[in-house]
Amino acid sequence: xxxxxxxxxxxxxxxxxxAGDRASQALGMRLEHVAPGRATIAMRVRDDxxxxxxxxxxxxxxxxxxxAFAFACNxxxxxxxxxxLEVTFVTSARLGDDLVAEARERVRYGRSGxxxxxxxxxxxxxxxxxxxxxxxxxxxxxxxxxxx
Length: 148
Fold this sequence. Notes:
Layout: H1 3-20, H2 22-26, E1 30-35, E2 38-44, H3 58-73, E3 78-89, E4 98-109, E5 112-121, E6 126-140
């Protein structure tokens, strides 16, 4: 597949996935970039995301990382899900912080894949690192109505 065709496929897959992703939309996430094996998602920390310590609840950091992971591993036209993940919290995020999660494919083999996601403050400081394992379901992500 030509590079331009691969990027177009990734964009079409992302549009189809985003159309049904109520969770990411409800959390105010924005899909900033997608390419084969890569995705970038942004989100602002809202007051309903802050825990009793006054910092962003870790579950929301995992959520933005997991969403970026999902979009990165669903760029090849086949429905792919998380098989597992591990997260390391580096520092905190606070109310009003703008966060960016960048996912990148490390390797794909058979139906499995390995992805690294970095969540950063908008100024570049690392907040969390996630490593995700993916599993391809062996069915298309796009339908005839998606332009496939």
